[in-house]
Please model this.
Amino acid sequence: MSLVVMKFGGTSVANVERIRNVAKRCAKVRREGHDVVVIVSAMSGETNRLLALAHEFGEVPDPREMDALAATGEQVTAALTALALQQEGVQARSLLGHQVRVLTDDAFTKARIRTIDGTKIGEVTKAGSVCVVAGFQGVDDHGNITTLGRGGSDTSAVAIAAAINADVCEIYTDVDGVYTTDPNVAPAARKIKHISYEEMLELASLGAKVLQIRSVEIAMKYGVPVHVRSSFSDAEGTIVTSEDKFSSADMERMTVAGVAYDKNEAKLTLRGVEDQPGVVAKIFSALADANISIDMIIQNVGTGGAGLTDVTFTVTKADLAHGKQVIGEVGPKVGMKELLVDDQVVKVSIVGLGMRSHAGIAAKMFQLLAAEGINIQAISTSEIKVSCLIAAKYTELAVRALHTGFGLDKTEVREE
Amino acid sequence: MSLVVMKFGGTSVANVERIRNVAKRCAKVRREGHDVVVIVSAMSGETNRLLALAHEFGEVPDPREMDALAATGEQVTAALTALALQQEGVQARSLLGHQVRVLTDDAFTKARIRTIDGTKIGEVTKAGSVCVVAGFQGVDDHGNITTLGRGGSDTSAVAIAAAINADVCEIYTDVDGVYTTDPNVAPAARKIKHISYEEMLELASLGAKVLQIRSVEIAMKYGVPVHVRSSFSDAEGTIVTSEDKFSSADMERMTVAGVAYDKNEAKLTLRGVEDQPGVVAKIFSALADANISIDMIIQNVGTGGAGLTDVTFTVTKADLAHGKQVIGEVGPKVGMKELLVDDQVVKVSIVGLGMRSHAGIAAKMFQLLAAEGINIQAISTSEIKVSCLIAAKYTELAVRALHTGFGLDKTEVREE
Model:
C-alpha cells in the first residue's frame, strides 16, 4: 500500500463527464488499497473566464481581488470531484487551500508556497476518505486568499506530495507524456520515457507546457518522483526523477533531449539611457519591486550616442502592461529617450544533460537557424540548454529544423 | 456620518453592467461621508447552475460539498464588486464568510449563524475602505464552509448590520418594496410604506420573496431598521421597523396588511399509521434529526380503520426527496400503509397586526375562498395571520379574491 498524489489539469476536469472519469480512475486506485490525495485544477476555460470578468473593471485589477475571484475555479472542481467519488462509492472530502493550510507569501496572483501543513490531509486519509484538494490556491499570514499563478496546480500537487511524503506524484494531463518537442509543430516528435529533473526544469521554463517550472524545482528539492501521463489512457507516460535513477538504462539517450519554444515572451528596449554605474540596477530594482520576472537581458554598450546605451529585456506577455507602466515611471529618471516594445517574438531552446560533455552544440544550433535564414535577436545559455530569441513567425520552421538537426525525429513506430 | 449596510441580491449583480451600477451607488454613499459595508449575493442563476452541477452526481449530494460549491457564487460577486468600486475611485476590499468570521453551526446547506465577529469589517472600514462581504456563507467550528440556505444573503446582511451596530440595513432588490401582494398576480397590489417586523415576518415566511424570514427575525431581535428598495431606482421603498415607530402616522392602515402565497410546499400523507402515543413523535423526530423543517401538520384521528390514523404534513419542495427517504425508513416502523405525496399545492395567507383587535377575519377569508369554489385542504393560524392550503391551480384566483375582499386594491395612482 502506498500514498499516491494524483493531479488532474483543466482539460481532464473540463465537464461533468470528465470529472466522472477522473473519479473512476481515482476510485480504482483507492480500491486497490492505496491512500489517495487528488489535486484538481479549474475546469478548462474557467480561470480565463473569471480573469476576463476582472478585467472588465480595469486593465490592472487589484491582485488581491483577482485571487479571491480566481480561486473559485478550483473550489468548484474540488467539490464536484468529491461528489463524483462519493457516487463511485468511495468516501471523499474536499479541502481548500486555506483549509489544508497551504501557507504562501502575499504576492497575489503569483504567490510562493512557504509551508504546507499535512495534518488535515492526513486526518482525511486516515479516516478512509480520498482527500480532494483545490490546487492553485493558498492563504497568506492574514487569511487572504492567494493563488500560485498559471499552472500553479502542478506546484500544489508536488508540494503537497512532498509535505505528506507521498510515494509518487502523478500528473494527469491532456498529453500522454513529455515529448522531444511539441508534436503539433513537429509531427516527428517522440515521447520521452525518463527525464531528469534538470532537463525537465529547462524544458518547463522554456515553454513546454506539460509541467510548471516551480513544481519541478520542488520535486527536485524534495526528491518527489513525478509521473506525467494522460488522463484519457492507461499508457505509461514520462517519469521525471533524478538522473542517477535512469541514466544507466538509457545509454542511447541523445545529446539533446528536447526542443522547446515559448511564445509567451515580450521584448522591451529602453533606448538611450545613461551609460553610468547604477542605472541598470535602478531599472531592474524597480521591476523586481513590482514583482515582474525578467528572462533575457541584453545591454548594447555604446549604441545610441555618446554616454548612452540601450537596454533590452524580455518579460512574460502577462507582465507586459505592468512592465510598461513601471518603465514609464523609472525610464525618465535614467534619461530614457524611447521605449520600444515587441511582442512578436519567440524563444526556441535546446535542452540536454549531454551538452555538459559535448562541445559545439550551441554553434550547431546557430548554424541550423542560419541555414533557414532566421536572425537571432538574443541568446542565453545554461549548462544544459541554449536559447535563442527570434521573430515569432519563424517558430515552426526553427523547431523542426532543430529537431531534425539534432537527430530527434522518430524513426520507427513504437508501442510505448 | 452613519454606518450603512447595503445588500444587493442576485438580479442586482446579474452581470458586469449591473455590478458597475451597484458600485456607483455604493460609491455615492461613501463619498457622502458614510461608512459602507456591502453584502452581495451570487449573480442570478449562478447558484442554480452550481447546484445543478452537484446534482449530476446524485439526487441527494453530500451537503458539505454542496456548500463548498455554492459558496463560490458569492465569492465571485464579492471580488468583482470590490474591483468595480476601486474603478469608481473608492477603496474597497472583499471578505469571505470565513474571513469575516461568520461562525455557523454545521447544518450544511441551511446553517444557522452563531456569532459574527465585527473586528475585521471594522478594520477595513476604519482604514477608509468599503468592505464587500460575500453573503450567504459562513464557516463552522472545524473550518468547513457552510451556507445559510436560499435567500441567506438577507440573513447575512441583517446579522452583520446587527454585529457592527449599523444605522440601517438597506436591502436592494429587483422590486421597489413590499407590496400588499404579488403585483404579477394581482395588478391592483400597492406598495406598503411602513411595515412591522411581525407582519413582515409572516409575509416572508408565507412566501413573499422580498426578504428571507430569518433576516426579519434577526432584525426584530436586534432592532435593526431594514429598508427594502429597488436597485434600479432612487425611490423610497418599504421600511421594516418596530410597530411603535410608525403606527401613529398610519392611522389609515387596513386590518389586513397583505396577502401572500407560497408555491414552495409539498404535502405528504402517511396513511394508516398506528394511533398510539409516541407514534407522531417518532415520525417528526426522524424528520427533525434529518434537519427537515415541517410547516403545517394535520392528524385525522380515527380515519383509515380501527386504531389507525392518517398524518399529513407539509415540507418545502427542496426537502421533498429527502423527506420521502426519511419517511420511507421510519414509516414501516409505525405501521404506515401508504405514503401519498402531493406537490401541486399552494399556501395562501392574509397577514395584519389589525387582526388582533378585529374578530371574524378568518371566517371572512374562508367565505371569500368558498365563494370562488376553492376547497381548503389545511388551515393554520397565528395571532396576525391565517393560512390555507389549496390546490395550486387556484393560486391567482384565490390571491385576487382575498386582495379585493379585504379592501387592499389600489384605488388611485400615486407617486411613491
